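Homework help board

Subject: predicted structure for assignment chain

Our instructor gave us this sequence and asked us to write out the predicted structure in token form, then describe one feature. I got the tokens but I'm not sure how to describe them. Can anyone check?
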Amino acid sequence: MHSIDKQKRLHFDVVNVGLRAQATAVGLVQLCVELRDAGVLPDAALTRIKDAIADEVSVAGPRRRGAQDLRREVRDRLDQLFAGETKVGSAEALSFGDTPDG
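My token output:
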């Protein structure tokens, strides 16, 4: 199975379970930050987690934008979010290609 097909299957499985909630996402980010800070989660693992999230968002993203551009922008925002130091801005800004709110 190709990577994009595998990602699409995972997307549908996650949607069917109902894990699209923001509370789940916040919990995941916090868990990753805690594990990284405790030295349990290596940078390579965190990179793979962020890549998986970016892949999922680009699969489910708006079709009017190029998937690669959207994925790159999402991945940059994930780096900021997982760093825990930068306000990322609204998802609406991402959908329309605007810059995040300060």
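Reply (TA_rk): Your tokens look well-formed. For the description, you could write something like this. The chain has a mean pLDDT of 76. That's the kind of observation they're looking for.
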